[in-house]
Design brief:
- By secondary structure, the protein is an alpha+beta fold.
- It has one domain.
- Helices cover 48% and strands 17% of the residues.
- It is built from four helices and four strands.
- The chain has a four-stranded mixed beta sheet with strand order 3-2-1-4.
- It is elongated, with a radius of gyration of 15 Å.
- The two termini are 27 Å apart.
């Protein structure tokens, strides 16, 4: 993300979609995404984190990508990420499945 931010000049606006793509590619290479009952999870560095607007995912995005959810433009990044993660995830749900997501 820092390389992207530093590559911008006054004529090139910051794009939430480009930022989301960079973050998605990075997390996709570093972790495993999966969907269970329409909820996306990330298995990353020994933890399973639910993709949601709660503290664990916000903290991860802030720590790893410098994305502060409170900024208005960050919410656009968040929405693009959520759609990308859901579309690129492996679906683990089967009807009647009560197993927990893998650790």
């Amino acid at each position: 993300m820092e390389a992207y931010r530093s590559s911008l000049d006054k004529d090139t606006p910051w794009s939430p979609d480009v930022a989301a793509h960079i973050i998605y590619e990075w997390f996709d290479a570093a972790g495993t995404w999966f969907v269970r009952e329409d909820t996306v999870f990330l298995s990353y560095q020994g933890r399973v984190i639910r993709l949601a607007t709660d503290l664990p995912m916000k903290a991860l995005l802030y720590h790893e990508a410098g994305i502060n959810y409170a900024h208005r433009s960050s919410r656009a990044v968040w929405e693009a990420l959520a759609a990308s993660f859901y579309a690129g995830s492996t679906c683990l749900h089967t009807p009647g499945d009560t197993k927990q997501p893998p650790a």
